[in-house]
Amino acid sequence: MYTINDLFDLEHTLAKDYLSQFTYPWEALKGIKDFILELGASLDKSEYEEVSENVWVHKTAEVYPSAYLGAPCIIGPNTQVRHCAFIRGSALVGADCVVGNSVELKNVILFDHVQTPHYNYVGDSILGYYSHMGAGAITSNVKSDKQLVVVHGEDENIETGIKKFGAMLGDYVDVGCNAVCNPGTIIGRKTSVYPTSCVRGVVPENSIYKVNDEIVHRHE
Q1: In terms of Cα–Cα distance, which of 131, 135, 139, 127 is closest to 181?
Q2: What is the pLDDT of residues 119-155, one digit of tens each?
Q3: What confidence tier does 76 reach under pLDDT thresholds 50, 70, 90?
């Protein structure tokens, strides 16, 4: 439940070939910037416009005038980047996404149909297909003691070897309003997180996260 294949359907991102090189999703974080630079240079110029150096925006995307697009980044088809969004750079945003009011993105991959619509911070993270973050939900990407991030699973702890690591949200994950995903959080596919939750460790797929000691299986 920690691996890229456990969490994501790679058919729904331009990062398919890049992510396929790795077993664990956090292994991809260090190379996102270089990957975007390489990918951007190869994009079809009839579909994407390089609006500033190393910033590529699909011609069907809507970027509000007050939004900031830092290099390198790619904004996919039919995506909205709304008022005062702050994309610091190293961001691949897929098709049909929403990057909303005062949202900040940094060193991220957003699969297609991801919504970060209101006051979200997403850093050093990967958000899977159709994942959603409620208003004010954020990823915390650095531990308070500044030590390297460890992924805490049910039966094992995995040393990542990296200092900055936010969260990995599997496909169809829904994170409630004002929830915090602590460094090294992994949330399995089709799991929902209650609003105002403080999430850490690995949350199984098809679950509902209420509090740390109350995670229930979702019944279809």
Answers
A1: 139
A2: 999 999 999 999 999 999 999 999 999 999 999 887 8
A3: very high
Q: How many CB atoms lie within 10 A of CB 149?
A: 23
Q: Where are the domains of the chain?
A: 4-217
Its pTM surpasses 0.70: yes
Architecture per CATH, 4-217: 3 Solenoid (2.160)
